[in-house]
Amino acid sequence: MVLLIDAGNSRIKWAWLQGDAPGTESGIDVADIDGAPLASAWRNATAAVYTCVAGDAVDAALRAALPSGCVAHRVQSQSAACGITNMYAAPSRLGADRWAALIGARTLERGPLVVATAGTATTVDVLDADDRFLGGYILPGLHLMLESLARNTAGLPHAQGAPVEWPRNTDDAIHNGCAGAQAALIERVQARLGADATILLSGGGAEALSPYLVCAHRRVDNLVLRGLARVAADVMK
Asked: Which of 39, 183, 194, 232 has a Cα-to-Cα distance from 217 of 20 to 30 A?
């Protein structure tokens, strides 16, 4: 059985490969990583295809949790893979999770794409109609933005606001300001790419960010796992 693992900064998510797509997703917080529960969950894996952007210690813990004899393939960014061309100045420096998400996005939609992933950080990446990754943006995720204001100012709370047209209290003012800034970048990138560009919104913060996008967009499940499923099709040949 082929295991797909997305080890991010906050969460480790995994799914079994079913056909050419990931099956039901499971996950734990990185802070709660423990080899025994993972080893039990992954005991049937014969191969694993994974990304890890959470550091060497987490990578070592993941590998230790895999059963003996399991073939582990860590996905790293490269100049081209699965039909996608990486235009990063130094292709290997692109985060592996962003690279896998782009590959996953292409399995869902053709044409120009804005791939926005809202997690610990929010990333906004662009694929053109010729399957070239043109570049992208990284900014603090919504939670980090809110936390930064609460931590670094004397009078502002850790806001629990809601989407409103005209914020009339401090919580709403902070929440709408931070979420609106993220949505505005996504919409600006789409405008630059072209009106026919599709926006795919993914990640743990997608639900909170979605109401602030005034343009059409598609919510999708974990794009990284979808990308890993596509990579697995090549790796397991």
From this structure: 232
Q: For the segment 31-43, what is each residue's pLDDT rounded down to a tens digit?
A: 888 767 899 999 9
Q: How far is CA 201 from CA 17, 72, 88, 209, 215, in A?
A: 22, 29, 22, 9, 12
pLDDT digits (tens, 9 = 90+) for 103-144: 999 999 999 999 999 998 999 999 999 999 999 999 999 889
Query: CB under 8 Å, gap of 24 or more: what pairs does 34-43 form?
Result: 35/61, 35/64, 35/65, 38/12, 38/62, 38/65, 39/64, 39/65, 39/66, 39/67, 41/14, 42/3, 42/14, 42/66, 42/67, 42/70, 43/67
Q: Give catalytic residues, as residue numbers.
A: 97
- Name which CATH class applies to 2-74: alpha beta
CATH number of the domain at 109-226, please?
Answer: 3.30.420.40
